Every structure is written in C-alpha cells, then in structure tokens.
Prior knowledge:
Layout: E1 2-5, E2 8-11, H1 22-26, E3 29-37, E4 40-42, H2 44-57, H3 66-79, E5 85-92, E6 109-115, E7 126-130, H4 151-162, E8 167-171, E9 177-180, E10 184-189, E11 192-195, H5 206-217, E12 222-224, H6 229-233, E13 237-242, E14 246-253, E15 256-257, H7 265-277, E16 282-284
Parallel strand pairs: 7-8, 7-14, 11-12
Antiparallel strand pairs: 1-2, 1-6, 3-4, 3-5, 4-16, 5-6, 8-9, 10-11, 10-13, 13-14, 14-15
Amino acid sequence: MKIYLNGEFVEKEQAKISVYDHGLLYGDGVFEGIRVYDGVIFKLKEHIDRLFDSATSLQIDIQTSKEEISKIVIDTIRINGLQDAYIRLVITRGVGDLGLDPRKCPKPTIFCIAEPMNPLLGEDGIKVITSSIRRLPVDVLNPAVKSLNYLNSILAKIQANYAGCDEAFLLDSEGYVAEGTGDNIFVIKNGKIKTPPVSSSVLKGITRDAVVDLAKEQGYEIVEEKLTLHDLYVADELFITGTAAELANVVEIDGRIINNGEMGEITKKLSKEFKKIRKVMGTKVYE
Ligand code: PXG
C-alpha cells in the first residue's frame, strides 16, 4: 500500500512525520474521510470544499490548489489499483517548534491514505447509547470545522464501548440531540423524516446532505429541526449516516428497542437508493 506524503508516494512503513508536527503536538490540522465506490469518488468536490473551508477557518494555508489536492486523492487510489476504498486526507499546520505559535510552521504537512474498508459499524443494525459528553458548542470549537481534535468523540466512544454498544450519540450544550461520534442522525416518525439542523453543533455531513436530497427526490417529507432524546426513543425508525458508517440502522437506543429490532421500510428504501446513487455521484478515478 502506497501513501502520499508531502509530494511523494512512499510505502506504509516509510510514511512517517516529524514529532514536531503541530498536527501531532496540538491536533492542529484538518481532515476528510472520503469513499470511492466502483472507481467513483463519492462527492469529491464537496469533500475538497469542506476541507478548504476547515483550513480557512483555522487559518491554515494549504499552499496547494483544490485541483492539485483532488489529483492527490485520485492518484493515491490509482497507484494502489483500488476500486472500493476509504480515503483519509489530512493536512496539518506542519512542522514547528514546541510553542503553539502557528507562525513557526511555514509549510503544511499533507498526506493521503487509501485502503479497503467495510461499513465501519457493520450492516446488522447497531446499538447506541447517549453519551454524557456534550458536542462542542459553536463558540468553543465549531463542529463545522473538521479538525484533528476528536477527543470529545473519542470519550463518547469509550462510553459506548463500556456500555457494550456500537456507537454513542452526543447532545449539544442545550441538551438537544447533535450527532454521533462520526455520523449524523435521522429519525422517522409517522412517515416524516427529521434530522437536526447543522446550525447547532452538528457537522454538515456529506452523506447527510446526499440522503436529504435523495429522500426529497423519493417524495418524502424531510425536516431539519431540533430533536430531543424523547423524539429518538419514540421513533418508528432511526438511522445514522457517515462516510465511514455509510447508512446504518439503529435497533436500540439507551435500552429502547426501535421497530422491534428490524430495519424499517423507509430506511430500507433510502439505503437501497443510496447504494445506487453513490456509484455515479462523483469523480471517476479511471477514465
Ligand atoms: N459528524 C461527525 C462529527 C463526523 O466526524 C460525520 C458527522 C459524517 O460526515 P460525512 O461527511 O462523512 O457524511 C462525521 C464524519 C469514524 C469517523 O471512524 C468519522 C468521521 C471521521 C473520522 C472517522 O466513524 N467523520
């Protein structure tokens, strides 16, 4: 497996970065998780746009154009001869000294990994708990920025592990449902699909947006509104979306069984349609 690192492709064992890299010292960097399906990179443009927005927000100068970064992603898949894979594209502030000052980091570190990966949480339906860890408020570290700081998601995941669950949901600082550790949440009640608005401590997931569009095309009513845990507990159907998790059905939340532990009809339909569109919506790796 060859990895792109700062201008060249190197073997996995040789893909090493400095201990003075601020991505490592301070979580000072941004990233994207992207998937390629059947040789088509799903929504590559949207991922690159979000990466650049995250970098702009943190005032990280990527010093490379969007076109060049897109080409790095394409070349990483090509050089490894992959058709279906998960891609991790990371840009850190780069190598500096031991102080925080970003001015000491003249050049960003850029790397891209691509390797085969099944849906992260399996396809059998997942069990979820609500974490006591809150999603970061927009005035602390805006969750719209996909930064290398994932500690609150990791703390929530540890709680899920202890509870014997697959995933944890986080509330925002007001107590409304925000999102999973690396995924967005959808609730279905009486045929209506609901998801929390991106304005409140929720990452604007690219899978989320694709599923919203898809649901509208299929004629479903879909609303973005604040949700409480009660809405989740009494849901007819519940699922999550994310690049790594794809579309995963939730069968249990905090001990409440959803739809008798089965995948509901609307979730089934959306999951089927999502599998169709994702193979065509994006950038072809091999012409
Ligand atoms: N919310 C958060 C906090 C995320 O990190 C999503 C939603 C879904 O966004 P996309 O654009 O992928 O539909 C993410 C995705 C993991 C993992 O292991 C997930 C993400 C990043 C890294 C790892 O589940 N991000």
